């Protein structure tokens, strides 16, 4: 039986290296699959960070515009909170989803 097996499978160093490789690939706390999952999560978190940094920049500009421009503040109040001046009527037109 042993004579038909290839010589590298009978080599104790190859067997030890193979066992260590399998252990590191599947069972170790820093296994390949955990590293891959962590790398993917890190990539997703970096994308979220970029998105939120852009949102912060956009919101900061909007806040600055609202603080310094009274016309922008009035327009924002009318559009978002449907505020009106005394004696005005507001008509809200919505599209009917079909």
Summarize, please.
The protein is mainly alpha-helical and 98 residues long. 70% of the residues lie in helices and 0% in strands. It has one domain.
Helix/strand order:
HHHH
- Number of DSSP strand runs: 0
N-end to C-end Cα span: 75 Å
Class derived from helix and strand content:
mainly alpha
How many helix segments? Answer: 4
Percent helix, as a range, is: over 70%
Count of structural domains: 1
Radius of gyration: 32 Å
Mean pLDDT, rounded to whole units? Answer: 87
> Segments where pLDDT lies below 50 for 5+ residues?
none
- Main sheet: strands, sense, barrel: none
Strand-residue fraction? under 5%
Question: What best-fitting shape do the alpha-carbon axes yield?
Answer: rod-shaped
What would you say this structure looks like, in words?
This protein is mainly α. The chain has one domain (7-81). It contains 4 helices and no strands. The longest helix is centred in the middle third of the chain and has 37 residues, at 32-68. The protein starts with 6 loop residues before the first helix and ends in a 17-residue tail after the last helix. The model has no long low-confidence stretch (mean pLDDT 87).
How do the helices and strands line up, and which of them pair or pack?
Blueprint: H1 7-10, H2 12-27, H3 32-68, H4 70-81
Helix pairs in contact: 3-4
Comma- or semicolon-separated keywords:
98 residues
């Amino acid at each position: 039986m042993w004579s038909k097996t290839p010589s590298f499978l009978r080599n104790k160093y190859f067997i030890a290296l193979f066992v260590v490789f399998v252990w590191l690939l599947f069972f170790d706390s820093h296994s390949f699959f955990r590293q891959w999952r962590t790398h993917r999560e890190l990539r997703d978190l970096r994308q979220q960070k970029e998105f939120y940094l852009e949102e912060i920049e956009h919101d900061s500009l909007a806040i600055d515009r609202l603080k310094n421009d009274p016309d922008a503040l009035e327009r924002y109040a009318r559009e978002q909170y449907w505020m009106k001046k005394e004696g005005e009527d507001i008509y809200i037109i919505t599209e009917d989803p079909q």
